[in-house]
Structures are given as C-alpha cells and as structure tokens.
Structure of Methylated-DNA--protein-cysteine methyltransferase:
Amino acid sequence: MTMYATVDSPLGELLLVGEEAPGAAGVALVSLSVPGQKGGTVVQDGWVYAPEAFAGVAAQLREYFEGRRTRFDLVYAQGRGTEFQRRVWDALEAVPYGETVSYGQIAARVGASGAGVRAVGTAIGRNPLLVVRPCHRVIGADGALRGYAGGLERKERLLGLEGALAGR
C-alpha cells in the first residue's frame, strides 16, 4: 500500500510518499518532493493519506530545518533505481552535513571517469529523496551551484542552513 503525507517546511509543502515498512514501525520512504520539483512525485489515485505513518519522518525534518539534526535516520524503500543510481545515491549519503563535493568527486567515488560525470549528474538529478538524501551538497568543480531538481534557490537555502556557503 502506498501512503503519503505533506509537511510544511521552509522550502514549501513537502510531499512524503512511502510504503509500509516490513517488520518495522512506520513507513519506508519512497519519495520526498518539493513543490514544482522537476520530475517530482504527484499523488496518485489509490494512495492513502496517512500523516500518522510519517510522524517520525516529519519530526526529523523539523529538527533538520531548525538546525538541530545533521543526519537522518530513516528507512528507505529498497530496490528503487538502477544499480548505478543506487551507487551514486549511496555516495550522496556519505557527504557530511555542512560540506560540499563536486560531481567529479562523486564520479570518482563510484568508479565513473571521464564521460561518467554526466551519468553521475543524471543519477543525482533522479534522486527521489530530496533533502534527506543530500544531493544539494553536490556542486560544480568551480564551486558554482548547479542543477537541483528542486531549484537552485532551494539548493542555496539548504546549503546556507548547513553553513556550507560560509566563505564563498
């Protein structure tokens, strides 16, 4: 069963989508979208509005936006994306709060070289879990903010919240 809820945030109303987490309380997160997101998820017929299932996710998001959480402890739905995308997304998870890396650095971490940087950028752009899987921490090699499905203004806001823009 696919469930969803919405959560107010400084980025606008976030759409949370999940599935029942087998053997665990709560929900396995499938998607976190921001309003107007390129390729963002939209509520489908048959989905169940279940804000109570997302209470833990919502609490962690509030703590993050209040500057009291630097890491998320959530259950993600398994089996999403290609094997390459999952490697890239795992590399995103390893980028610490308040730090940034380049697309080339992510490519090197997943063993993609040369033209592979473009594929890495595409995989990052298909990250279904904005904010909680920190694709906003990936910037251009020259330090410029590039490509964010939620919009560059939101990317800048997230990096500012994390203190990653200091000295720029």
